[in-house]
Amino acid sequence: MKKLWVSLIVGLVISTTLYGSAEEKLLDSSNALKNMIRDSKIKIPQKVLEKAQAIAIFPGTIEISIFLGGKTGNGVMVVRRSDGSWSYPFFVKLGGAGLGFQLGVEKKDILMIFESTDSVKKLMNNKITLGVDASVAAGPAGDSAGRGSEVDFKSEVYTYTKTQGAFVGVSFDGSVMNHDYDENIELYGNNITPAQIIESDGLLSSYAIEDFLKAVQKLTSY
């Protein structure tokens, strides 16, 4: 009975994250990023933002925990180009399993800041496993972060979460990120890869794309 109940929950929460057009999902990502920027508890140190090579946001990511937990989410990513500008956004997916000790479902917005070009290159090749292909840690936050604190700023990926549930703390070790080719094709209208999106300057834009890039600029305006 418990297994059936969990299956019904999984079907419900996954269906809410999969429906909607690419434009709608991009707007959801913009809103999640704006909410994080406005949250006074999530104040990302300038040192982290200065080194940022890529930024990914996963709005409404679902975490299910019943002794063995799992995460699933669809998100949007941008990469810093060689001239310092941000690329057009492209879609990525997050999935993985981890240990859990409670029964429940939690919804959270997840922000990931990639600090190394190596980790970004690995993702561009197809996928990246956090904690294996790139070190991952909860991101430092607040005015005191980096000023006499124990933060060493050596992680390749920093994560920030805005939770809409009862659980506290998230482990991303073992989580896998990869490309969402179908959503990228829907957004840009042709068979395009993330590498091509990053390198391109002439893609068709839209309100959703511009809105997301403005949110990224606001986040990184240190």
From TrEMBL:
Q: Which InterPro entries match?
A: SH3_domain_YSC84-like, Ysc84_actin-binding
Q: What is the organism of origin for this protein?
A: Sulfurospirillum diekertiae
Q: Which residue stretches, if any, does this entry annotate as coiled coil?
A: none
Where the record annotates domain Ysc84 actin-binding, the positions are 96-216
* Name of the molecule in the record: Ysc84 actin-binding domain-containing protein
| Pfam families with a match to the protein in the record | Ysc84
Mention one GO molecular function.
phosphatidylinositol binding
